[in-house]
Amino acid sequence: MALDVFNREVDLGTPLASESTRMIIAGLTDEDMLAQNVSIQYSQSINRLWEVGSSKTFFIAGRTQGTINVKRIVGGRGISSAFIKQYGDVCNMAGNVITLSFEAGCTDGKDLGEVTASGVVINSIAYSVAAADMVVNEDLAMMFARLEI
Description:
Elements: E1 22-25, E2 35-50, E3 57-73, H1 81-88, E4 97-104, E5 110-118, E6 121-129, E7 136-144, E8 146-148
Antiparallel strand pairs: 1-4, 2-3, 3-7, 4-5, 5-8, 6-7
């Protein structure tokens, strides 16, 4: 491979395009969420114990829990009342599922997998607007029971 003008070797990796990455919300397939940022975290509690008079250490697994944060723009369709009613009602948790499906590629979308959160419920909603752009932002915080890959 030839060197560039700065005497460096540059090799191109496989290009990626993220247009095929999707957030799929069970039961609400036709809504434009205008999501700008989606974050999913799933964790488990691990307690570490030591035995008196020994060098042994023990790890005790506790409960799991997950959170989802979605930052979206309230667009032409307005506030997503159907989504908020469905996912904000704790009695609907059993059927509330959110999947992030990841694909990338310039010509043929390469399946990079997906993560599915189930038992989802909204526990916080916030709205904001800035005078500079007058874009109404919605921040959704959710809890969920199980994550599958």
